[in-house]
DNA sequence: TGGGGTTAT
DNA sequence: ATAACCC
């Protein structure tokens, strides 16, 4: 692993060190004390539900690549290394390397602002995500070699549940090796490590595995990134960003309150997005402490019981959501945004482009999409962001032709898409679109479902439910005559 | 704001 | 089909 000190700290504030250490609880305290119980009788250890005996706290790592698109570009073209580099999509610099950040370029800055701040900025176009997507999956696959339970978050982040791997290594430890156990990377809040504390030992082993993961990413793929090790996804994600770039941090349980209190606003809590932040602000909730102490009953009335209970737990650093293996993608989509599209012919041309790329991707994947969707964004001065969509099943004879390069699959699919288009857009009236997107989803493996097998009865096209005419599946798809 | 993704309702 | 969340 690259020396931590080499990376440089840049503009990232070390909020943690500025925090009041007193709130950390007793560093190095023993965990022999009884686990506190919730009213329901379920024991909790810092956000982790413990089924029986209190022996199953998880070890989770969050791996976060440094300025991922810029790294991929610098690997593609090494001459870019050392120069301030921005990745451009339309008129935005969506990400940039650390050279550029030092010169004042920020993520999602407009090209104009970025060039103004940094005239030497080198820009590369990043609208085609192909190489980023490919590298992204290489990272996930590398991590899956350590443990198969890997959850992707975007193209540049992964969670891995290390619990089992850590426990195996811990049991393999010979006497004497335990006392030689050391942490890899930073310990959040400079907390003391207690090797008599089994939770500390597990997390240290987690930090060792995290270091091995980053080492493998660098040696095999040439990529650097950060890692955070903690007892749940929320805390792992928050702690991974404490030392950037190319560094790692482990959070010991006694410092979890310091970590979440280091957030300046509830909007910084992963899981609390734009809308929820606005609704929380309307209730006078701004800080994590505000959310912790707000009436649960009122919060449930305002946000619904599901969101309320989930985010209030998050505010205490509690997150029992599992690391869900992502596996292959659930959908493939391609989109293009533009200033104006106001004719059907124009739309058709753009749709054809999007579809052509998608068919290549879906062909490489091997699975077959059974649903197609068209998404548009209409121009409106204020209300941005809102999109409309129409979807329908892909006719089975089209699906069958998908893998075979022989037949023209474009024509029938473009026909379907244009029907969906006219279903959304009254082409006899003037219109102004700013985005078109095509999505292929409902992917199914081409399993040879044999009669009498589970697959047979789970395959709608084969099982009796589809013959009976009374389908038990919700059919919200737009009907399109073929 | 871009070009993607996911799950819940 | 939309709305929320994530990057």
UniProtKB/TrEMBL annotation:
Reaction it catalyzes: DNA(n) + a 2'-deoxyribonucleoside 5'-triphosphate = DNA(n+1) + diphosphate
Name this polypeptide is given: DNA polymerase iota
Alphabetical UniProt keywords: DNA damage, DNA repair, DNA replication, DNA synthesis, DNA-binding, DNA-directed DNA polymerase, Magnesium, Manganese, Metal-binding, Mutator protein, Nucleotidyltransferase, Nucleus, Schiff base, Transferase, Ubl conjugation
Necessary cofactors: Mg(2+); Mn(2+)
EC annotation from Swiss-Prot or TrEMBL: 2.7.7.7
MF-aspect GO terms: damaged DNA binding; DNA-directed DNA polymerase activity; metal ion binding
Function text: Error-prone DNA polymerase specifically involved in DNA repair. Plays an important role in translesion synthesis, where the normal high-fidelity DNA polymerases cannot proceed and DNA synthesis stalls. Favors Hoogsteen base-pairing in the active site. Inserts the correct base with high-fidelity opposite an adenosine template. Exhibits low fidelity and efficiency opposite a thymidine template, where it will preferentially insert guanosine. May play a role in hypermutation of immunoglobulin genes. Forms a Schiff base with 5'-deoxyribose phosphate at abasic sites, but may not have lyase activity.
Known partners and oligomeric status: Interacts with POLH. Interacts with REV1. Interacts with ubiquitin.
UmuC domain sequence ranges: 60-273
Family: Belongs to the DNA polymerase type-Y family.
EC main group: transferase
Signal sequence segment: none
rRNA-binding keyword on record: no
Disordered as annotated region, ranges: 1-48
Compartments, as annotated in UniProt: Nucleus
Native source organism of the sequence: Puma concolor
Biased composition (Acidic residues): 2-14
């Amino acid at each position: 692993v690259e020396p931590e000190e080499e990376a440089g700290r840049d503009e990232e504030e070390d909020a943690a060190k500025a925090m009041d250490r007193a709130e950390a609880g007793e560093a190095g305290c023993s965990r022999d004390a009884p686990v506190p119980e919730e009213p329901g009788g379920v024991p909790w250890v810092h956000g982790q539900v413990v089924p029986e005996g209190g022996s199953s706290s998880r070890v989770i790592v969050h791996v976060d690549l440094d300025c991922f698109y810029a790294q991929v570009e610098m690997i593609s073209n090494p001459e870019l290394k050392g120069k301030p580099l921005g990745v451009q999509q339309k008129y935005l610099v969506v990400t940039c390397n650390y050279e550029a950040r030092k010169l004042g370029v920020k993520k999602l800055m407009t090209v104009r602002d970025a060039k103004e701040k940094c005239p030497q900025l080198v820009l590369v176009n990043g609208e085609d995500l192909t190489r980023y997507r490919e590298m992204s999956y290489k990272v996930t696959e590398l991590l899956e070699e350590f443990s198969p339970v890997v959850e992707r978050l975007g193209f540049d982040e992964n969670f891995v549940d290390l619990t089992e791997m850590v426990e195996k290594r811990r049991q393999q430890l010979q006497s004497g090796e335990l006392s030689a156990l050391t942490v890899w990377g930073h310990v959040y809040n400079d907390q003391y490590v207690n090797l008599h504390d089994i939770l500390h030992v597990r997390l240290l082993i987690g930090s060792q595995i995290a270091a091995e993961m980053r080492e493998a990413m660098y040696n095999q793929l040439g990529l650097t990134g950060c890692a955070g090790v903690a007892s749940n996804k929320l805390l792992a994600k928050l702690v991974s960003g404490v030392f950037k770039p190319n560094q790692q941090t482990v959070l010991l349980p006694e410092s979890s309150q310091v970590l979440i209190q280091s957030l300046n606003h509830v909007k910084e809590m992963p899981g609390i997005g734009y809308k929820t932040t606005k609704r929380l602000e309307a209730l006078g909730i701004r800080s994590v402490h505000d959310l912790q102490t707000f009436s649960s009953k009122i919060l449930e009335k305002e946000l619904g019981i599901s969101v309320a209970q989930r985010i209030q737990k998050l505010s205490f650093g509690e997150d029992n959501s599992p690391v869900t293996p992502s596996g292959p993608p659930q959908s493939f989509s391609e989109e293009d945004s533009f200033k104006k599209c106001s004719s059907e012919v124009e739309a058709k041309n753009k749709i054809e482009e999007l579809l052509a790329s998608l068919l290549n991707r879906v062909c490489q994947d091997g699975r077959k999409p059974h649903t197609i969707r068209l998404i548009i964004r209409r121009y409106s001065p204020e209300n941005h962001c809102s999109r409309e969509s129409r979807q329908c099943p892909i006719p089975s004879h089209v699906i069958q032709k998908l893998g075979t390069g022989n037949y023209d699959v474009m024509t029938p699919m473009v026909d379907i898409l244009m029907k969906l288009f006219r279903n959304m857009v009254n082409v006899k009236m003037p219109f102004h679109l700013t985005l078109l997107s095509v999505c292929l989803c409902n992917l199914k493996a081409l399993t040879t479902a044999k009669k009498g097998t589970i697959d047979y009865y789970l395959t709608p096209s084969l099982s009796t439910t589809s013959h009976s005419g009374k389908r038990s599946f919700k059919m919200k798809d737009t009907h399109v005559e073929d």
